[in-house]
Amino acid sequence: MLAVMLDEPVRTKLAERRRSRRSSRCVDVTICEAGGAWQEQTCTLSWNEQGILAALGTKVKIGELVLVRDPENCVEREGRVVGLGRGYGRRREVAIEFTEPAPESWLDHRHSGAYS
């Protein structure tokens, strides 16, 4: 598992290693601690089959196990926090890698994403 702060050179390296195309479309998701201690509604900054980048107000740690839920159909994906990035007011970029790749259509069923 790669655990890094997401500064610009690292972002470039991660983009070069990307295993599948990425959507930059904002999609509403609910992220919660796997044990149920906290839950937060947010939206993705980007996402692909391997995981998501989201802005969270809840403080999380690298390696923390979380669930990412599509609030429209309640389908959940388990993931781990693998990176912490820039702050946006009270929120911070959080990179979450799914423990199992998600079907490409998992979040795309609602939005035809703008892929990069």
State the low-pLDDT regions, or none.
1-5, 111-116
Largest sheet: 6 strands, antiparallel, barrel
CATH class: Mainly Beta
Strand order of the largest sheet: 2-3-4-7-6-5
Structural class: mainly beta
Q: Number of helical runs?
A: 2
User: What is the CATH superfamily label?
Assistant: predicted glycosyltransferase like domains
Which percent range describes the beta-strand content? 35-45%
Mean pLDDT across every amino acid position? 79
Radius of gyration: 13 Å
What's the CATH topology name? Thrombin, subunit H
Helix share of residues?
A: 10-25%
Shape: globular
- Series of H and E elements: EHEEEEEEH
Q: What number of structural domains do the residues give?
A: 1
- Architecture, CATH level 2? Beta Barrel
- Ends: how far apart? 23 Å
Q: How many β-strand runs?
A: 7
Fold topology:
Blueprint: E1 4-5, H1 8-17, E2 28-33, E3 39-48, E4 51-56, E5 65-69, E6 76-88, E7 91-98, H2 105-108
Parallel strand pairs: 1-6
Antiparallel strand pairs: 2-3, 2-5, 3-4, 4-7, 5-6, 6-7
Write a structural description.
The protein has a single domain (4-14, 26-97), classed as predicted glycosyltransferase like domains (Thrombin, subunit H). 12% of the residues lie in helices and 43% in strands. The chain has helices spanning 8-17, 105-108, and strands at residues 4-5, 28-33, 39-48, 51-56, 65-69, 76-88, 91-98. The chain starts with a strand and ends in an 8-residue tail after the last helix. The model is unreliable at 1-5 and 111-116 (pLDDT under 50).
